[in-house]
Amino acid sequence: MTGHATAVRTIPTVGSWPVLGCLPDLIRRKESFWADAHREHGDIFHLDLGVTGLVAVSHPRHAQHVLIENARNYVDKGGPTGFRATLLPLTGQGLSTIDVEDGHWRSRRDLVGPAFRQGALKSMTDHMAQLVDAHTAAWPAAPDGAGTGLDVVPHVTTAVTTALAELLYGAPITGHEIRRVSRAFDQIMNYMWVGMLASVVPSWLPFPGRRRQRQAIGVIEDVVLGVVARRDRSRAAHAPELLDILSAAERELDAEGLRDEAVSLLLGAEPLAISVSWALHLLARHPEVQQAAFTEVDGVLAGRCPRFEDLSALPYVRMVLKEALRLCPPTYWVQRRAARDDVIDGVAVPAGTNVVVLIHRIHAHPGIWEAPERFDPQRFAPERSASRHRQAWIPFGSGRRGCVAREFSMTLGHLILTEALQRYEFAPHPQRTPALTVAANLRPRSGVWLAARRRAAG
Ligand code: HEM
């Protein structure tokens, strides 16, 4: 399995079209493409993408190898290809897209990392809870009866983005700005696969969608720089560590570096908002789980706003969030490029190969998860998790480049779910039931519509 092992088998290839490989199939079938490829070819296969190719790996022990044990061979995030090709013009040298783990990455991680650590969280959670409280209270829902149709995505996005802007930049962000960023980000993610083709065409040549892509990037930049300009350092009392990121960045980085970091961090709102929206959708479809969550929330809080200390007494709600992140991980793969020849599970991986760790396939692996398609938060109960492979659940990635805001995201998501459950009861919308998707285009096009009605105590 390791780099010292010998290659013993050939790798199956997925891809049927000349020049384009499997891209047409991938764009057309999205979800089923990956599940079928995994079922047909096993845990490791080669993806022919026409202009480029990838080795896709789908077992927790592969994640262990690529992201942890042999991580030094996989420090390169894949150059100007893959997800990175789509995000690079947007986040540039921001922490999430810095390519090679050199001193440059280390100093950025040292700049950003400490502000998100557990200790720092304690000081900001109560303020976060108040912000979330104000937002969830205003969701439009029927006082009684069958419930009002509610697309939870924009509401959750507003709660998450407002909290993030307030805590990171000490600045308010308007609903209009949030909608502009969301639409632009949507546009960028929809361009992802085409962007991979475009990455081999010189940037000065016209390419379908390229102009709109540039416009979308301009919109995000415009909004983020506008918010940062409104920064009010006097609000630092609530989250001094997070606000310090930007102040330190101002001292250490040029204007471009500051912009890249500010954009890179605010975009973290998207995956979090989508995860929480899917969690609400899953609760709506599983009334018994929702009931168990009501019992926990009501027993601990009895209607009051949660505090940092309360979260440890609300483990079931956290398990709901973890299970939603398992079933629909918003970052559905992470990409690396092999620096030297390697062998993964008996398959030769030559230097220069792009390797993608398929998070969503690992999360649905039938050899690891019992009935993987079933929504079952109890699978994260300590007694059922103890013997599970440590890389079986990796929505935040793993190893040194794992998500810098993992605990922050879990805390904010936990708070939003708790507040929503205190106030509302959710049921599937009678006419609009979205198909649960691995977030191939992060934001579900048709939204996540639910029937929501106010709870008596809410
Ligand atoms: C549910 C929410 C989130 C998910 C599922 C998520 C997922 C991920 C994943 C999978 C990675 C690793 C990428 C790789 O290995 O190539 C990552 C890295 C990162 N995330 Fe998140 N993320 C979330 C929220 C956030 C938030 C809220 C922020 C910012 C406030 C953020 C900032 C970052 C940064 C800066 C990195 C790069 C870290 C490094 O390379 O050193 N993420 N995230």
TrEMBL record:
Q: Which UniProt keywords apply?
A: Heme, Iron, Metal-binding, Monooxygenase, Oxidoreductase
InterPro entries named in the record: Cyt_P450 (IPR001128), Cyt_P450_CS (IPR017972), Cyt_P450_E_grp-I (IPR002401), Cyt_P450_sf (IPR036396), Cytochrome_P450_Monoox (IPR050196)
Superkingdom assignment: Bacteria
Q: Please verify whether the record's keywords include Heme.
A: yes
Q: Which GO terms describe its molecular function?
A: heme binding; iron ion binding; monooxygenase activity; oxidoreductase activity, acting on paired donors, with incorporation or reduction of molecular oxygen
| Ligand binding (heme) | 403
SUPFAM superfamilies (UniProt xref): Cytochrome P450 (SSF48264)
Q: Which cofactor does it need?
A: heme
Q: Which Pfam families match?
A: p450
Any transmembrane segments, and where?
none
Q: Does the keyword DNA-binding apply?
A: no
The family this protein is said to belong to = Belongs to the cytochrome P450 family.
By its UniProt entry, which PANTHER family does this protein fall under? BIFUNCTIONAL ALBAFLAVENONE MONOOXYGENASE_TERPENE SYNTHASE, CYTOCHROME P450 FAMILY 4
Q: Please state what the protein is called.
A: Cytochrome P450
